[in-house]
Amino acid sequence: xxxxxxxxxxxxxxxxxxxxxxxxxVHLRARREAERLGHxxxxxxxxxxxxxxxxxxxxxxxxxxAEVDATVAAYARFTPTWxxxxxxxxGRQGQGLGSALLALVASLRPDGFALWVFETNVPAQRxxxxxxxxxxxxxxxxxxxxxxxxxxxxxxxxxxxxx
Length: 163
Fold this sequence. Notes:
Elements: E1 10-14, H1 20-36, H2 47-58, E2 62-68, E3 71-78, E4 83-88, H3 97-108, E5 113-118, H4 122-130, E6 134-139, E7 150-155
Antiparallel strand pairs: 1-2, 2-3, 3-4, 5-7, 6-7
Helix pairs in contact: 1-2
């Protein structure tokens, strides 16, 4: 896992309930931009459904935000073994926020983790590959809501002596 450069104005911190509105905004804007560019299939849930679902997940899953100038610019939501979300606001992409959050997840999950990425999301696949994740499975999409082909990528972790 590569480490990002230090950013003087970047704060990585656990998300709190009061962050829900900003986290949902990042999610919706990033998803729409990825859809517009053809990197992700069109979402199947209305904004209100996404808002309720993601707000609920923030109370259950470990979620960290990347804050720049006191504004949530990106977030990562994960479980003990899965990175479920890593979204960066479109206006902040390419500035190292995703790398900073991914490095944080790796530090908190030294035994490794996995994620799913759509087959059409080649930029995300390249991003994860640059950070040491490898494709371990390809599907036809029958197991996801969008019914779009996807790939399982994994990071094996940093602990010595793993089997």
